[in-house]
Amino acid sequence: MNTRIRTTATLIAGLAAGTVIVLAATPTVANVPSATAGASGPATETMVLAFPWEGGHQRFIDTGKKGIGPGDLFLGVGMPVLNNRTGEQIGTSDAVELIVSGRHDGTVTSQGTLRLPGGHIELDGVIRHTDKPSRITVTGGTGRYLGVGGQLTLLRSDQDRKVEVMRLELVH
Questions:
Q1: pTM
Q2: What's the CA gap between 20 and 27, in Å, rounded?
Q3: What is the pLDDT of residues 11-50, one digit of tens each?
Q4: Contact present, 99 and 7 (Cβ < 8 Å)
Q5: Cα–Cα distance between 142 and 66 in angstroms, integer?
Q6: Is 147 exposed, middle or buried (0-12, 13-18, 19+ CB in 10 A)?
C-alpha cells in the first residue's frame, strides 16, 4: 500500500510527473530528432527524466472511508523534475490525481503541468496501475511547446536513488 501511495504521488508529479518534461531548450537534455522529421513531417524529441519521491508540496485528501479509495485525491505542487543523466533539476511539475476505482491496483484520472524553460507541457489521462508500461498523454503546451503532443512513459522505479524514471516523447 505504501508503494502504491508513493508511486501514485510521484506519477501525479511525473505523469504527471513529469512531471513531465520537455527540455529541448535545456543544454543538459539531448534532443533526438525523428528519423522521419523533415520539412513536411513532424519533429520529435525524447528525454529521460527523473521524478524524486520527495520535494515540492504533496497532499493526500481522503474523502471517503479511511484509507485509499475512490474519490480520494493526491495533489502535488512544485515537484522537482530532474535530468536523469545529470541529476540536475530542470523544472517542476504540478498535478492532481483522482482515484476513480480500486480495480487494476488503482485506476486514476490525472492532470499535470510540467513547468520547463521556454514553456509548459500539459498531461492528461486515465492511468491503471497494472498497465505495463504506465503512460499518460501529452495534450499540449505553451511557449516553445505550443501545440505539442506525445506521451510520458514510466520506465522504472529506482529504489537506490528514490526516483521514478520516465521517458518523455514529444511530437511538434
A1: 0.78
A2: 17
A3: 444 443 333 322 222 323 333 344 444 556 789 999 999 9
A4: no
A5: 39
A6: exposed
